[in-house]
């Protein structure tokens, strides 16, 4: 799990929807002060470039969205509402914007640290949303925006366990009312549900 080594840049150097699917079941690892926090990824959202009106890249390159344009395997972390950190993984090739938002994890190791960061919350709501995930894992803009997750230092992703397609559901992304209808309805949010009856 922890000693598997990080996923390489070639894993991320693909279209965001492919990466979003393949991130399900992987482990997100944060090493801080010699303590490991590990969560298994169970929900993701894919975002494209200028052609995706739901994406930060739809208006072109800006200081805020610059990490989305590569290289692949970097973290793109930003604040929403001035409060919540959103953790994305940059996909595709350099110069072509793309990213995958991590929406939810299931704690695997270091749960006590996550609970403390979440103010004592210790139930299914511990890390089942993108803001909750970053709070639980200690991921912030100042610490990790542009961080190279392929180095295996401080914050990275490992192989994890395969996820069967029968246990994956796809649906529209969340909180993108401003986007064009085709992008609002695109099934680019992926959720691993091991007891799914699909």
Give a quick precis of the structure:
This protein is of the alpha+beta class. The protein has helices spanning 9-12, 16-23, 111-117, 130-137, 141-144, 181-185; strands spanning 27-32, 35-47, 75-80, 84-90, 99-109, 155-158, 168-171, 189-192.
Descriptors for this entry?
198 residues; alpha+beta; eight-stranded antiparallel sheet; 28% strand
Topology:
Layout: H1 9-12, H2 16-23, E1 27-32, E2 35-47, E3 75-80, E4 84-90, E5 99-109, H3 111-117, H4 130-137, H5 141-144, E6 155-158, E7 168-171, H6 181-185, E8 189-192
Antiparallel strand pairs: 1-2, 1-6, 2-5, 2-8, 3-4, 4-5, 7-8
Please tell me about this protein's structure.
The chain has 198 residues and is an alpha+beta fold. It has a single domain (9-192), classed as Methylpurine-DNA glycosylase (MPG) (3-methyladenine DNA Glycosylase, Chain A, Roll). The protein is built from 6 helices and 8 strands. Strands 1, 2, 3, 4, 5, 6, 7 and 8 form an 8-stranded antiparallel beta sheet that branches. β3 (75-80) and β4 (84-90) form a beta hairpin. The longest helix is centred in the first third of the chain and has 8 residues, at 16-23.
What does the overall shape look like? globular
Mean pLDDT, all residues: 94
* Order of helical and strand elements: HHEEEEEHHHEEHE
CATH architecture descriptor: Roll
Sequence stretches where pLDDT stays below 50 over 5 or more residues: none
Radius of gyration: 16 Å
**What is the terminal separation in angstroms?**
28 Å
Total number of beta strands = 8
CATH homologous superfamily heading: Methylpurine-DNA glycosylase (MPG)
Query: CATH class, anyone?
Result: Alpha Beta
- Percent of residues in beta strands: 25-35%
What structural class is derived from the secondary structure elements? Answer: alpha+beta
Fraction in helix: 10-25%
- Stated plainly, the CATH topology is called 3-methyladenine DNA Glycosylase, Chain A
Biggest sheet record = 8 strands, antiparallel
Question: How many H/I helices?
Answer: 6
**Number of folding domains?**
1
């Amino acid at each position: 799990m922890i000693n598997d080594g990080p996923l390489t840049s070639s894993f991320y150097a693909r279209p965001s929807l492919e990466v979003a699917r393949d991130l399900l079941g992987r482990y997100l690892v944060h090493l801080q002060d010699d303590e490991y926090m590990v969560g298994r990824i169970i929900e993701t959202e894919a975002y494209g470039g200028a052609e995706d009106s739901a994406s930060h890249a739809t208006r072109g390159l800006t200081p805020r969205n610059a990490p989305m344009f590569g290289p692949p395997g970097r973290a793109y972390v930003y604040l929403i509402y001035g409060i919540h950190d959103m953790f994305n993984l940059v996909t595709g090739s350099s110069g072509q914007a793309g990213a995958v938002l991590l929406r939810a994890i299931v704690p695997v190791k270091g749960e006590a640290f996550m609970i403390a960061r979440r103010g004592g919350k210790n139930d299914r709501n511990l890390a089942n949303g993108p803001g909750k995930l970053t709070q639980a894992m200690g991921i912030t803009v100042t610490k990790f925006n542009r961080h190279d997750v392929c180095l295996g230092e401080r914050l990275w992703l490992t192989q994890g366990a395969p996820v069967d397609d029968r246990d994956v559901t796809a649906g529209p992304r969340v909180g993108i009312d401003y986007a064009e209808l085709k992008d609002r309805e695109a099934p680019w949010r992926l959720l691993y549900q091991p007891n799914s009856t699909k």
